[in-house]
Write a structure and sequence with these properties.
Blueprint: E1 2-3, E2 12-15, E3 18-28, E4 36-43, E5 49-55, E6 59-62, E7 65-75, E8 80-84, E9 90-93, E10 109-115, E11 121-125, E12 129-137, E13 150-155, E14 160-164, E15 172-176, E16 181-186
Antiparallel strand pairs: 1-6, 2-3, 2-6, 3-4, 4-5, 7-8, 7-10, 8-9, 10-11, 12-13, 12-15, 13-14, 15-16
């Protein structure tokens, strides 16, 4: 058993007969009244995100997890298939277990959280950023850069990202996986 002082991003807990991963948290100490922790929880089975507030010192049932490196192989429409890099065993996960499935390229190495009690995979943690090639976007209009204007661009996996006007087809860009947003253009 853990308490609210043990809450951190990525911690898996049992709550309402399901296993949730903590996505965001904030310790709040109001001037009047007791302290509490405001959290955003993502269900590892359904992918649904809920918000919850725990009072300070509240006992939470944490789930012991192990992390393993897996390589993304392919998506068959229903499941995403991964291979363990140590023993070459394969697992398949639903889209709900993935934070940003649109940013996964075949061959990418990700971290999979596995429940130590029953060896079931819980969720996939992407690297902090990925580099993708822009496959389709409108050409930028010269002189239209006075504001922070953006335009939609499709990357090689089919995912759409808003990018600055100077990005063209064929450019490689760095995308932040946590939010799915453009970070910077990569020079070759």
């Amino acid at each position: 058993m853990a308490t609210t002082s043990d809450i951190r991003n990525g911690l898996c807990i049992r709550y309402n007969h399901d296993i949730f991963k903590i996505v965001e948290f904030l310790h709040v100490k109001p001037g009047k009244g007791p302290a509490f922790v405001r959290t955003k929880l993502k269900s590892v089975t359904t992918g649904k995100v809920i918000e919850n507030t725990f009072s300070a010192g509240h006992k939470i049932d944490d789930v012991r997890v192990e992390t393993h490196k897996f390589q993304y192989l392919y998506n068959d429409g229903e499941f995403y298939h991964f291979m363990n890099q140590e023993d070459y065993t394969q697992i398949r996960l639903t889209e709900a277990a993935l934070d940003m499935p649109g940013l996964l390229k075949e061959g990418d190495v990700v971290t999979v959280l596995i429940n130590t009690e029953d060896n079931e995979p819980l969720s996939v943690e992407m690297p902090p950023h990925v580099v993708m090639e822009v496959t389709q976007t409108e050409p930028g209009v010269k002189g239209n850069t006075a504001t922070n204007a953006t335009k939609p661009a499709t990357v090689e996996t089919g995912h759409e990202v808003n990018v600055p006007l100077f990005i063209n087809e064929g450019d490689k860009i760095k995308i932040e996986t946590e939010k799915g947003t453009y970070k910077e253009r990569i020079k070759d």
